[in-house]
Amino acid sequence: MFHPAAPNLRRLEASKATPDAFEKAWLGVFARIQKESGRTQPPYMHLQPQNLRIDTLAPNLALATFHLTQGSTLSRRSLLLRHTPDGWKIAHLHASNLPLPTP
Length: 103
Hints:
By secondary structure, the chain is an alpha+beta fold. It has one helix at residues 19-37, and strands at 50-58, 61-70, 73-84, 87-99. The termini are far apart. The model has no long low-confidence stretch (mean pLDDT 86).
């Protein structure tokens, strides 16, 4: 998993990380989102995926890509999804943010 911003600057690998490490990484992301929202109660974020594209790579594998925009930031997201006996699960997530060009 690649998070788009601090506090998680490096890839977090399932083969090397415990479930607690993944939870800690997400809790850090959620704390940053809450702080940056300036709000004291939910919702701290309003996601509106744009240009959603889902490509079936195999019967049990799909790639979902989309954009998010917030202020002057373009966020790009890619999720590799694997179908398991328990349903579709995220096998890999890549998130990156770029500044939007000024007009």
